[in-house]
Amino acid sequence: MLLAQQPLWQEGRAASEDELLLCHSAEHVARIRGIVEPVWLDEDTVASATTFEAAALTAGTAIEAALQGGFALVRPPGHHALPDRAMGFCIFNNVAVAARAAQRRLGLERVAIVDFDVHHGNGTEAIFRHDDSVLFVSLHQWPFYPGSGGPDDQAETTVNVPLRAGSGDEEYLEAFSRVVEPAVARFEPELVLVSAGFDAHEADPLAEMRVSEEGFRQLARRCRGLADRVAAVLEGGYRLDTLPRLVAAALDGFTR
């Protein structure tokens, strides 16, 4: 799905192995490609013979969103995936692969990733922790899965914004104004990629936050104002009856 006006939408494409290797080890890519029978990769993440195809399509579609200024409506999510293993429903780190590919294809020196999924994007942080060309900013419930991203987990280009359980629109938007916007402004990115998770919604079954539909619209609008070039990738959100409305609200915020 594109944030730009034309075309309105288009199908994604699979990432190449070279693109996946921008963020992941050859062993991890080969392990996922070689799965033929259902297997648990960790306590949360099951994979089967079709997982490589699905995950490569997800990563490739995220790349195209980054290049074209779009919203990649994809699953599986990606922000827990580490360089050498899957984790927490995530096979390949879609937003990280998209950031690396955009740097290579567009010649960008600075990319910022803003993650408002309810869980800390530990995989994205791990991939870019020692890379001063990518700023990673995460707003998330804490303490909570995966146990990282606490108040002391900070670095020059890693900004974690842990929020207490029960936080809603007011707390998220205040933290965005107080921490996220100044951090991104100081970094002066040429591209902002948004890990757009919707599991901080008040009705989501996997967390304890209270963000409303309007809250996600406002978060997307704030993200849109961070740079001239902005794109987004779907992460979490686990109520099928609310997720379409939340994505629609975010699209409205991204495009207005």
Topology:
Layout: H1 17-20, H2 26-33, E1 39-40, E2 46-47, H3 51-68, E3 71-72, H4 94-106, E4 111-115, H5 122-128, E5 134-141, E6 158-163, H6 169-187, E7 191-196, H7 213-224, E8 230-234, H8 243-255
Parallel strand pairs: 3-8, 4-5, 4-7, 5-6, 7-8
Antiparallel strand pairs: 1-2
Helix pairs in contact: 3-4, 6-7, 7-8
Please provide a brief summary of the model.
This protein has eight helices and eight strands, in the order ααββαβαβαββαβαβα.
The CATH level-2 architecture is identified as 3-Layer(aba) Sandwich
Total number of helical segments?
8
List the uncertain runs.
none
Query: Structural class of the secondary structure composition?
Result: alpha/beta
Shape: globular
Major sheet: order of its strands?
Answer: 3-8-7-4-5-6
CA radius of gyration is 17 Å
Distance between the termini: 15 Å
Mean pLDDT: 96
Please report which band the strand proportion falls in: under 5%, 5-15%, 15-25%, 25-35%, 35-45% or over 45%: 5-15%
The helix/strand series, from N terminus to C terminus, equals HHEEHEHEHEEHEHEH
